[in-house]
Amino acid sequence: MIKEKEAILEKMNKSLESVKIDIDRELKKIDTKTNNDIKKINKEKEIFTKTIEDETNKLKEEKIKHKEYIESLNKELQENTIKNQFKIDELENKIKEDKELEKIYIERKEKTLKKYKEEADRIQEANKERRELIKEMEEK
Predict the structure, then answer these.
(1) What is the rounded CA–CA span in Å between residue 45 and residue 51?
(2) CA dist list (Å): 32 to 23, 24, 46
(3) Distance in angstroms (rounded) separating the CA atoms of residues 91 and 97
């Protein structure tokens, strides 16, 4: 009976040993698959991280370019504003000069007209006197 029990125990031990070997083999397969999956995930993570870094760097470069472009536009705007103000000042001065020249022209024109009127009045007066003299001479 003891031998039978020992034989049964021996069978059970062999069976357990066989199950243990099968479990170890399956665990090794699972470990290998898990390790491969981890390597794959890490590789994908590395690629993803690299892609994010590249895109971030591109965005930073674009941001710098946009900032430089905006700065150049602002500078150009300031320069054009200064040029335009200068042109406005020139035009305002020209308008003032033109108004002064117009005023001088009007004054000269008025003086000339006044001289012509005085001359016309003098001629009229002389013609009037001449007519009166002619009349007097005719009457005599």
Answers:
(1) 10
(2) 14, 12, 21
(3) 10
DSSP state of 140: -
- Which DSSP string corresponds to 51-89? HHHHHHHHHHHHHHHHHHHHHHHHHHHHHHHHHHHHHHH
Residue pLDDT, tens place only, 12-69? 999 899 999 999 999 999 999 999 999 999 999 999 999 999 999 999 999 999 999 9
Q: What is the residue whose two structure tokens read 């039978």?
A: 4
pLDDT at 62: 98
H-run or E-run covering 45:
helix 2-139
CA–CA distance, 34 with 105 (Å, rounded to integer):
103
Residue identified by tokens 């399956």 is 26
For residue 8, the Cα-to-chain-centroid distance in whole angstroms is 90
Question: Two tokens at 54?
Answer: 């590249």
Q: Which 3-state string (H, E, C) describes 8-35?
A: HHHHHHHHHHHHHHHHHHHHHHHHHHHH
CA dihedral 46, 49, 55, 59 (to 10 degrees): -150
